[in-house]
UniProtKB/TrEMBL annotation:
UniProt feature coiled coil, ranges: none
Pfam families: N_methyl
Organism superkingdom: Bacteria
InterPro entries on file: N_methyl_site, Pilin-like
Protein name in UniProt: Type II secretion system protein
Transmembrane portions of the chain: none
Organism: Massilia horti
NCBIfam families xrefs: IV_pilin_GFxxxE (TIGR02532)
Amino acid sequence: MNRGFTLVELLVCVAIVAVLASAAIPMAEVAARRAKEQELHRALREIRGALDAYRHAVEEGRIVQPMDRSGYPPTLRLLVEGVPDAARVEAQARLYFLRRIPRDPLCQDPALSDEATWGKRDYQSSADDPREGDEVYDVYSLAPGVGLNGIPYRNW
């Protein structure tokens, strides 16, 4: 007796594998998108924490700023480069708030610097119409589209 598979059995197996693969591919795409969105949340929290720490250092008098400023940094780059610590002038100490600027994980343009992947909002502009200015009060994603939660990435 010959052992093996008939052509019909092979076609049935291929059809079953194709159906399973067609169901798995969209789920893998959603999982990849969810991972990018979680990375976006983490990056936004990290930058927000650094901006708040900078503002707190200004309020404590550790960073010298003119009185007409709101107390936020003029650029994101300053959070990485550091600023002189006014409380420890003799040691020429510096205050650092970030090791590096996180990149927007949804940004598709590899030519942009990490700082350029974020939209920046000045203290004077509203949340509905964010505009850049003399200080970085907040950041937002420049990525088009809507998250899995139904909220546009720009509003996260």
